[in-house]
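A.,

Following up on our hallway conversation. Structure tokens first:
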């Protein structure tokens, strides 16, 4: 019985059915796409062509013929130029093969591509050589997994074009977006003008010769002047409402895309480079969670002020306490961790601390303290002088003490 793992869909691959000891996973080879007309077509591509066709039919067949004579010629010229430019550039961006020159020279899209073996190569393109296309590519070329080929000056894969956008068709893509935005804005203005004049002054919209045979102001003609068809005011206004909503939705997407690519052009980067930088940059929330850096030894010394002997780090007696006194703040006693004592030693630039002959500043109740004066040597490198016994503390550091001044006092709690 076969066991299915429903929790790792992205890792599922096809395995050979033969019961071989070397059960290697493999994926079937794929053919490369030539351009945006290669099957299968994407759903967004069909939506883009349907929206363009709807706007062209409604604009040039219904609302532009209703404009008065001085404005109709200007509207036909401007909107017609925008729609024609978008059609030409859109078709060019879909038709052009954006593959790298070395890939296009092979012109072998009929044979399947070799399978990528991640056990031999960590990346598809290594040292400007694509292991799938088996050709040398340019420095900005990227291998598109959807088109299954290396794209010269790769920007992104556009689902609306069903084709990759690279160096060969980028400007066709950019001009098609710009012309679509201009055409949509002009068409929305025309539809709003017809909608308003329908209530304010309908006679302005009924200047065509065909309206002379129409009885009543509630009847309107569409698809003038070639094939006039009669409709009522409700149908004309409902169609205008649908056209404006659809145009505004398209403008929202197109303007966002156009502004984004204008920003990329101003920065001199591609969409792919922008995404890579975005992923590499840390999240602002993660920045706020990063703890502040610990102060350096110099900063610690400045915050604590210059030290004056006596300083008592009674490591042999209590490994977690340290009694010290500041020069400019009077006598102070506190319990500091051992790393702070080590930092104080490094700030003084010495590995040993010489203590004065005065008594300790304060004794902590319940803990035995060493009676000063003593001479501590924390370096552990100097040889002991004569008459100075070596006392080994629990931490393994040697402490040299004057024999004639050695003494311990214990204070009872």
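Then the amino acids I'd put at each of the 413 positions:
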């Amino acid at each position: 019985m076969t066991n299915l793992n429903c929790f790792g869909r992205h890792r599922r691959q096809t395995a050979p059915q033969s019961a071989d000891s070397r059960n290697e996973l493999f994926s079937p080879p794929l053919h490369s796409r030539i351009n945006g007309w290669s099957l299968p077509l994407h759903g967004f591509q069909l939506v883009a062509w349907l929206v363009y066709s709807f706007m062209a039919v409604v604009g040039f067949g219904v609302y532009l013929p209703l404009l008065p004579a001085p404005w109709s010629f200007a509207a036909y010229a401007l909107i017609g130029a925008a729609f024609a430019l978008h059609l030409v550039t859109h078709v060019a961006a879909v038709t052009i093969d954006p593959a790298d020159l070395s890939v296009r020279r092979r012109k072998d899209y009929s044979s399947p591509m070799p399978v990528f073996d991640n056990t031999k190569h960590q990346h598809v393109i290594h040292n400007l050589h694509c292991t799938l296309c088996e050709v040398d590519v340019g420095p900005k070329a990227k291998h598109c997994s959807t088109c299954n080929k290396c794209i010269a000056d790769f920007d992104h894969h556009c689902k609306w074009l069903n084709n990759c956008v690279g160096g060969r068709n980028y400007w066709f893509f950019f001009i098609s977006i710009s012309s679509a935005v201009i055409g949509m804005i002009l068409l929305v203005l025309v539809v709003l003008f017809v909608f308003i004049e329908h209530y304010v002054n309908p006679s302005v919209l009924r200047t065509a010769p065909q309206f002379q045979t129409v009885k009543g102001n509630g009847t309107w003609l569409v698809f003038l002047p070639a094939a006039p068809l009669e409709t009522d005011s409700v149908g004309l206004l409902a169609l205008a409402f649908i056209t404006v909503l659809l145009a505004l939705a398209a403008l929202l997407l197109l303007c966002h895309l156009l502004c984004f690519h204008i920003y990329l052009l101003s920065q001199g980067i591609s969409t792919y480079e922008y995404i890579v930088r975005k992923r590499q940059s840390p999240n602002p929330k993660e920045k706020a969670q990063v703890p502040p850096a610990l102060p350096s030894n110099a900063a610690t010394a400045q915050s604590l002020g210059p030290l004056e002997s006596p300083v008592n780090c009674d490591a042999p007696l209590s490994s977690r306490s340290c009694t010290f006194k500041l020069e400019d703040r009077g006598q102070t006693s506190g319990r500091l961790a051992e790393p702070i004592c080590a930092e104080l030693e490094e700030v003084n630039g010495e590995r040993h601390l010489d203590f004065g002959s005065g008594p300790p500043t304060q004794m902590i109740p319940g803990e035995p303290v060493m009676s000063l004066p003593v001479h501590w040597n924390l370096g552990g490198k100097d040889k002991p002088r004569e008459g100075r016994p070596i006392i080994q503390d629990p931490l393994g550091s040697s402490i040299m003490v004057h024999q004639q001044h050695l003494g311990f006092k214990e204070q009872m709690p």
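The radius of gyration is 41 Å. Curious whether your intuition agrees with the design.

B.
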